[in-house]
Design goal:
Distance between the termini: 67 Å
Helix content: 25-40%
Largest sheet: 5 strands, antiparallel
Order of helices and strands: EHEEHHEEHEHEHHHHHEEHEEEHHEE
Number of strands: 14
CATH superfamily of the largest domain: DD-peptidase/beta-lactamase superfamily
Strand order of the largest sheet: 5-4-12-11-10
CATH topology of the largest domain: Beta-lactamase
Structural class: alpha+beta
């Protein structure tokens, strides 16, 4: 039996030429490839991501000062340990658009209400939801487990809506259950409007809440299993066999990565929440509002490094505390004749929000 891949977006142009049309009448533009060929091409196309391996070696020698909040190329971020202690953060309580990271809660609520083997028929409403490939066809029948693979591995919005309709009758009713679940788990600065994460109304979460939700999701064995998979084959009732590849590139780059969930919309930018195993247990990272996938992975790897070496963050905190205690007002005083109006050339002033300053003397 031969499987076919229905999401060749990451494959090279030469490999795409070998593809052929998929059989789903609802998804005319999907291209298929034999799975063995696709896996080889996927591995080859991951070469640009190898910079992450080099980044790990680089961060091992980075000074603690490099882990200032401004060094994280994202709007907000956090890393917490398994006890919930914050090891490092950048605007951890900022309310930002969550994009597809909401699907972690979608998955938890679906499993609270549905058996993984329960079969779901894709409604016409769900099939019309805007999403990336591979797309689901109306009338197709898949198990809850299969839909969770679509939602968590490839962020297929149609799968999230199909799960919502199967569990609660409608997406709106399901979202109410999602918000209740979030509050029960301690995510008090979170509000969902859609089961997929697509923009609608006022929808937000924070890095702190997102890390808590990630931690809770791993208590579901099936969710943890899916988040850790690099690839999976789904067989639909219509005879399609679809290879799903995880959108979490770090599964290929870091053996400590347990799993995670990506997200992207034009408003949210690139987001990722993940879990990493360290010598002291699990650590949970959340990055929101990165400008690119490269910045997203860089931010996550920096947080992972702090999770594995918490002393890096504590060294930076002690350094900042010493600098804050250093009297600097005379340097800016107009009333003292012996004090310059502006700082000396050897003094650098790095402005941060909320009128905080990081003062460091150049060597």
């Amino acid at each position: 039996m031969q499987f076919f891949v229905e999401n060749p977006a990451r494959l090279s142009h030469n490999v795409r030429k070998l593809g052929r049309r998929a059989s789903c009448p609802h998804d005319k533009e999907v291209v298929g490839l034999p799975v063995s060929l696709a896996i080889t091409a996927i591995r080859a196309c991951r070469l640009p991501v190898l910079f992450l391996a080099a980044f790990l070696l680089f961060t091992a020698a980075m000074p603690a000062a490099a882990f200032s909040p401004k060094a994280i190329p994202a709007k907000a971020a956090i890393v917490i340990d398994d006890s919930g202690t914050v090891l490092f953060s950048k605007f951890p309580n900022a309310r930002l658009a969550p994009a597809s990271t909401v699907k972690l809660v979608t998955a938890m609520v679906a499993l609270d209400l549905l058996d993984p083997s329960h079969k779901v028929v894709i409604s016409r409403n769900a099939s019309r939801i805007r999403t990336i490939s591979p797309k689901l066809c109306p009338g197709e029948e898949l198990t809850v487990s299969d839909l969770l693979h679509f939602a968590l591995m490839r962020s297929i919005n149609q799968a999230a809506v199909a799960l919502a309709e199967a569990a609660a009758g409608s997406e709106d009713a399901f979202v109410a259950l999602m918000n209740r679940k979030a509050r029960e788990l301690g995510a008090k600065d979170t509000q969902f409007v859609t089961a997929s994460g697509l923009p609608k109304g006022v929808q937000y979460t924070t890095p702190r809440d997102l890390a808590l939700l990630m931690k809770a999701s791993l208590s579901y064995p099936l969710i943890r299993e899916i988040l850790g998979k690099k690839g999976y084959v789904v067989r639909t009732s219509e005879g399609r066999e679809i290879f799903l590849e995880s959108s979490n590139d770090l599964l290929w780059q870091d053996r400590h990565m347990i799993g995670g969930k990506t997200g992207y919309t034009g408003n949210a930018r690139h987001c990722f929440v993940g879990a990493i195993m360290t010598d002291k247990g699990l650590c949970f990272t959340a990055v929101m509002g990165a400008r690119s996938r490269r910045s997203l992975w860089k931010s996550t790897m920096m947080l992972a490094e702090i999770g594995m070496n918490p002393e890096l963050a504590s060294q930076h905190a002690r350094r900042r505390a010493r600098l804050v205690q250093t009297p600097v007002a005379p340097l800016f005083s107009r009333t003292q004749a012996d004090a310059p109006l502006f700082p000396s050339p050897g003094l650098t002033v790095e402005h941060e929000p909320a009128d905080r300053f990081d003062l460091s003397v150049a060597p």
